[in-house]
Design a protein that fits this description.
This protein is of the alpha/beta class and 330 residues long. The chain has 2 domains: 208 residues, Rossmann fold; 105 residues, Orthogonal Bundle (Helicase, Ruva Protein, domain 3), CATH 1.10.8.80. The chain is 46% helix and 16% strand. It has 14 helices and 13 strands. The chain has a 5-stranded parallel β-sheet with strand order 2-5-8-1-9. α3 crosses α4, α10 crosses α11 and α11 packs across α12. The protein is globular, with a radius of gyration of 21 Å. It starts with a helix and ends with a helix.
Amino acid sequence: MSTAQLQELSRRIHDASGFVPQLRTELARSVIGQESLCHDLLLAVLADGHVLLEGNPGLAKTTAVRALAGSIQASFSRIQFTPDLLPADVMGTQIYRPQSGTFEVRQGPVFAHLVLADEINRAPAKVQSALLEAMQEHQVTIAGQTFPLPKPFFVLATQNPIEQEGTYPLPEAQVDRFLIKVEVGYPSRDSELQVLQMVSGPGLPQARPVAEPGQILAAQGLVREVFMDPRVQAYIVELVRATRSIPEGGLASLEGLIRWGASPRASIALALCSKAQAFLEGRAFATPDDVKSVARGVLRHRLGLSYEAQAEGIKAEDLVEKILAGVDVP
């Protein structure tokens, strides 16, 4: 890409990203003490991907998703996953109208711009798999008819890591369809005190609309145009290959710690998230630092830890750190 083309793209990004500071402000007003969570949500929205949120109860996961939907004027749907949930409860079904003697398709709650799949690991496998077509193809098939989902379309799923009874772990094929996984931690002391004062007093402020779905779609198109040097692309591939077995290019220090590594879908996700990070910073080009800043969220749920690693208390996050330290930066 020539210098003139980069300058033109930079100008377009500057014009199209005017809503980003306001969006950050609105999320910060409604979700106190979770700056990393809000940043990762913005990253996924711009990269047009789904998010898996994992954290203990009461850490503002649902609040953050609601605030995001309100600030971009998106239709919002919340699905509480339970063991007795059926695929039709999520996707929709065909119902009979006795007045007219005809069948009619009633669309389910998945038909929204932003879908919160709350405690997704509480539903059985057939309900979890019902989301696969929607997440991957952005369409749903009901009674032989295919219906497109709204654009933009995001699934933000939450799961509780501290309870195992009555839960169904997500299959690897489903987990891999999430662009990033966000581990939500506890807020700082000052942030928690601020939450307490606001909730016990006037209450948390509601997010005000500062963008609309059309602006999000335009921004997503520009994110894909962000320039990425072939050397940065090669760096991404080397990072992903390092998660695999030694013959595939893995690091010697990881031998025996990983049962399976990340697929090419991880390379694509790293590239898109890196470009989205550049867009958030108003740049028309992605750098290795962008790749490193998003690598943890993209890779932590795509590594299968060996029994030895689990026995030693090693986490996927630790292995990602080793990979980032072991692969040469261009």
